Amino acid sequence: MPIHPQTARVLACLATSAQLDYSALDVERFRATFQVPSPSASLRSIAAVSDRLIAVSHGALRLRLYRPHGAGPFPITLYFHGGGFVVGSPETTEGICRNLAHHAQTMVVSVDYRLAPEAPFPCALEDAISALSWARAHAEELGGIAGELAVAGDSSGGNLAAALAQVARDEGIALRHQLLFYPVLDCCFDTLSYATYRDGLFLTEAMMRWFWGQYLAQGGAPEDWRASPLRRRNLSGLPSATIVTAEYDVLRDEAESYAERLRDASVAVEVRRWAGQIHGFLLFDGVVDDATTAVEEAGAALGRAFSRCGAR
């Protein structure tokens, strides 16, 4: 279907970053130009939001904690924001995290991981691993359930969530679910969605090539599954997944390919492609009606995953 009219109006306001010359762009200029969406107009009421600094090998890591209404204890979902590994913060995804906490009745721990190029691959994943370890160790203190954890993220945050799910499996940590919103899953640019939507739709091929260049700046290999989770040969034993894609997104096909590979490995997967939508549309909750519905549906799927495991 055509681009949704509400989304088309958003696109008209996002033209600046798409017009940059990515062949000669420094990160400071990109960050100064990048437009972070305003807070959502439809934030759900939750019981509490607080920030926490935890000690990690490089110093401190900031976490933002979202607690839903209710007595608890609650399952815990680690959330990783998008931004091409270069921009973004828990503030960027405030609306998504609040609404997931409400709809899934889960504690959400949003991770302010280190950004590239100052902290290139695999620094962000190392922070994700540290956050998971901390959440497991401190679950009771948070009002959570140590054995009922899930991972979630959008775009590059979806990459970290998917890679963390694989790390957890390798280490014998049983996660309950992985919720991936239009995730980056492969350092590859040869899919049909890349060929069809490479320009003019917010996330462009040139932008993605630049993002990958920043993230893998110090010799990270694109074929390393920790950077490209789609390339992991063995996907068996991973947690069930909900994968949300957008019709007009260069990343659409790699996300849907990941869903197919998970199914082939006997992992339960739900995939929802949003017709007429672009990469990042969830950030425009309150302006784009589909964003509100998509997060509500995804939160319900996350809640069902916990329910199947007896966490609620």
Question: How would you portray this structure in words?
Answer:
With 312 residues, this protein is an alpha/beta fold. The chain has one domain (5-308): Alpha/Beta hydrolase fold, catalytic domain (Rossmann fold, 3-Layer(aba) Sandwich), CATH 3.40.50.1820. Helices cover 37% and strands 21% of the residues. The chain has 11 helices and 8 strands. It has helices spanning 5-12, 15-18, 27-33, 94-104, 123-137, 139-142, 156-170, 192-197, 205-215, 252-264, 289-308; strands spanning 48-56, 59-67, 74-80, 107-112, 144-154, 177-181, 240-248, 269-278. The chain has an 8-stranded mixed beta sheet, with helices on both faces. Helix 4 (94-104) crosses helix 11.
Characteristic terms for this protein:
alpha/beta; globular; Rossmann fold; 8 strands; 11 helices; 312 residues; eight-stranded mixed sheet; single chain
| Overall strand count | 8
Determine the strand fraction and express it as a percent band.
15-25%
- CATH fold descriptor: Rossmann fold
CATH superfamily: Alpha/Beta hydrolase fold, catalytic domain
* Rg, nearest Å: 18 Å
Oligomer state equals: single chain
Count of helix runs: 11
Mean model confidence by pLDDT? 94
Characterize this entry briefly.
This protein has helices at about 5-10, 15-20, 25-35, 95-105, 125-135, 140, 155-170, 190-195, 205-215, 250-265, 290-310, and strands at about 50-55, 60-65, 75-80, 105-110, 145-155, 175-180, 240-250, 270-280. By secondary structure, it is α/β, with parallel strands linked by helices.
